[in-house]
Hints:
Strand order of the largest sheet: 2-1-3-7-6-5-4
Pfam families: CorA (PF01544)
Main location: membrane
Number of domains: 2
Number of helices: 9
Membrane topology: Multi-pass membrane protein
Protein name: Magnesium transporter
Largest sheet: 7 strands, mixed
Order of helices and strands: EEEHHHEEEEHHHHHH
Transmembrane segments: 258-278, 290-310
Amino acid sequence: MLIIHEHGKPHPTQWTPGMGKPDAPLWIDLLDPTEDERRCAGESTGLRVPERSDLTSLALSSRIRTDDDAMYLSIPYFADTTRAHQPTPVGIVVTNHILLTLRFADSPAFQLANDSCAEHRWESSADALATLIEAVVNVAAKRMEDVSADLKKLSDRIFTPERLGTPALRNCMLEVGRLEGEQARNRSSMLGVQRIVSFLRAKQPDWMSDDVAVRLRVVEHDLRTLDEFDDQLTNKLQFLLDASLGFISTDQNHVMKVLTVTSVATIPPVILAGIWGMNFKDMPELTWPHGYAIALAAILISIVLPVLFFKWRGWLDGD
Length: 319
């Protein structure tokens, strides 16, 4: 898909084969483009459209660099969807007159920036780039707020007066893992954005207006705030994981305590049954009229007395 924003037009245009080149493009947004769309973007901008392999390169010089008047920027792992979409790379090429973006998945942040063109009449490519970066940061903040809200619900599930069993606590641990995965994707995306903003502020070409520079400075402050918020969420995730493991350990200790009490309570009746089960010729209990009932009563009492003793000592509390 090829989306074209032109000077003076309030709404973007989706390019189709046969339309020809745009007259005054300001922002060209490529979404998983075909060869025809890549060719049109290259001819319209006079820029080399990056390949996907260029965007995922580990070399920092390949991610962020300048080439003549153009700045080539990339985010190797970009994921601004809420759920488990795999991160995909995003490439940005910006000059003094045009902004070119390349992505391979739908993005709420890009959609937000596309929709804002009707409200904000961009004056330059730097203005459009600042709008895009602000949209990315705003969507990231919203995702982190969603993770924080889910953590609050999970905390209420774990720290409840009711005793949770191991299966319920295991589900809580799985939820912690899911939220940690979402936050890890948020973190990787924000790291790429932070590098881009730092690079733009350090270079600040002549064609970047002071207003855009101020907006980028505000974005950089927001990124530092989100980084602190990320640390809080990470600590909260670790705390809930440790709490779940602690409750599972406590639950297992309760089970072991019950088994220990049960085994101790069965020792006296086993001894009595072993004594009366011996085959000696002279055993006075064999001639008792009610010997069988007395033996059963003695065995039952030998079970009840240890249990009552454990209860009196408080060793069965909570079980």
